[in-house]
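[scheduler] slot 2 assigned
[scheduler] job type: sequence-to-structure, two independent chains
[scheduler] chain ordering preserved from manifest
[runner] begin chain α
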Amino acid sequence: PEANLFPHAMLLLPASDPSQVRRLVYQCLYEHSEDVLAGTQADLRIYPSPEIDRAVTTYSGMANAAINDTTRLFPTAEHALALFDRLVMYRPPMTDNDLLSDGQKRIVESIGNALSCAITPALSDDSKTVERFNQLKAFIEEADGAFSAMMALTCFAHINKEVATAAEQVIRNALQHNDSREVSYAALAVNKWMELTDELNVPPSLDRLIARMIVIIESGRTIGLPQLIWVAGQLIGKRRLTQDQAETLAEAIPNLFAAMDYANIQPKSREAINASTIREACVKVGGMLARSYLGNDALMDMLNTSRTDALPEVRFAIDPVS
């Protein structure tokens, strides 16, 4: 039925025949016609564009259906291959219309998310070739907003050293970008690569990316900082940081928390937008670090200060018992 919901939401609702619902949702997401994408390249004259909305709902729906812990709906390897080969060739048509340009960026970002979360992970090993990696890399570099597909690059990194190095370069450049969303997606790509890698066999490319991310966090650069700190927390939890890297974070996190003190920030500045989010992220990661560095006064002072923060998301960032 027509509804203002992603298709996989239907799988979360009560149904007399859940398997039939799952089959219909699968068809909607992974067996749709090429018209979904082709329709967005026509001469669109209506905004909001139904064609753009349909494409965004479909491709964002794929990503959400795959990452949802309850639904976990992925395409078959056959459908994944067909979708991959079609989507990496997409380039939005040129337009001087700002509204349509924004809509096309939404399409590209939704395609990137579908490639990262649903399609590329479902490819067979035989389908993960250097040629397809290069096609994906070209899509990221040529389509405005395709940085959301960076996580998909990591699925090819095992092919050879050259592919891993090329993936590293794309992610490294994005980590240093001035767009917070691009930095955030790059951080998520580092986390995805870590998840795909055995802790006893970490490739040098990933080691270098983790080191670069720690340096960026330590520098206090605020662009995409909450996501960078969150990924650092994931790395701590899975014991993927060296002793030196963990110690660097233990020193940097309290400083970042203090730098985002509301009294020191101009109300209309960029920092004011993310101050509480950064402080929340610092408290969560600081709580993890404090378990290993019980004698670190700066960490303990930060955690104690957070309990009286003006905003509840910071006050309750960690369990009071912790």
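[runner] end chain α
[runner] begin chain β
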Amino acid sequence: GSKYYQKQIDKNELFKVNTIADLRNFNGYYEGQEISLLGYYNSGDKPPLNYKFTIVDFDTKIDDGGSIIKSSRGLWVAQFGNEINSSDFGAFDENHGDSTSKLQKLYDFAILNNKKINITHLHYITSSIKLNRSAEESRIATITTTGNNVGGFIKYNGGFVFDSDNTDTSDFIFTSLRLMLFGDSVLINGDNIIRVRIENTHLVWGGFIHAPNRWLQSIRIKNNTVRNNTIPVVFFNHCFDSTFSDNVIEWGTTFIESNQTVKKVSEFKQDCAGIRIENNCIEGLKDTPIKLGRIVGGSIKGNFFESNIVSNLSNIDLSFSGL
């Protein structure tokens, strides 16, 4: 079992340790003792974070590298505010290797505890972060991921940054991220993706959001810059009540594509209802910018098109505005 060391100390004294390894090697002297962690791998490599010591549930709690750190005799429990830095779970830049497992632990904790996530570095990942959250379970909380124009994700081997095993994935906000998604990688993939916002984000090579088997609903993709995308930025089977506005899409392939796109009008199925594609700048694409089946309601207006290649039209350049 767990127990405290015996030592007389001033309870007002705030101990400090330099690294996460130091914290694991330090046992608290009393229940609730607080300590300041000054870095993760090295002192000062991330903002300081306080932890409190307890022996409660020592045998059942798991060290996740961020919210709970186990010493030999007890637990150090992170004192997070409303926001968690990805570096608090040991996720740093590409020089520190693959961050997938660290980010998975971060997201599992954030989803359970309704925390905002601050992506502090350009994280290298090799597999997907699973978003195990259904719409029925998430009506009261939104998980916000922000890179503050610095942090984001780099993926070389295709697949998805975020992937969902659930029927419904909902209530996520991605803002101010840097995305380098090589190998046809996609930021978020799922079956039914509901109430997701992607804003003020810079993407190169890959795509934002794909629901190839089912639908998107109440999606907002706004004020983003996309360059050299090798796959559609947005791809779906059906789409409802969604807005794609004020984006700059340059030098890649298709911006928005429906999986229901067919050649014969008689074969069109209703795949878009209340879709709004407005005020985007779409330039230099190597394929048809927007590929949709039948649209019911919504609007396509105020967009600017220049020097886009329309497939199946003898490679005629498409340059016009106001649509």
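[runner] end chain β
[qc] chain β: Helices lie at 20-24, 100-113.
[scheduler] slot 2 released
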